[in-house]
Amino acid sequence: MLAGRAEAPQPARPLAYNRGMKAASVTALCLLAALVASARAADPVVEATLDNGLRVLLLEDHRNPIVSFQVWYRVGSRNERPGASGIAHFLEHLMFKGTPTYGRGQYGRIVEQNGGRQNAFTTRDVTSYFVDIAADKIDQVIALEADRMRHLLLNPAEIASERQVVMEERRTRTEDDPDGFLAEETSAIAFVSHPYRMPVIGWAVDIGRIMPAEIRAFYDTYYVPNNALVVVTGDFQAADLLERITRVFGAIPRAPDPPPVLAVEPPQAGERRVVVHRDAQLPIVYIAYHVPNSRSEDAPALEVLSTVLSGGRASRLYKRLVHDQQLALGAGGDYSYYSVDPNLFWFWANPMPGETPEALEQALLGEMERLKQEPVSDEELTRAKNQIEAGFVFQEDSVHSRASLLARFDLLGGFGLKDGFVPKIRAVTAEQVRRAANTYFSDSGKNVGILIPKSKS
Question: Which domains does the chain have, with CATH numbers?
Answer without folding.
Answer: 43-249 (3.30.830.10), 272-453 (3.30.830.10)
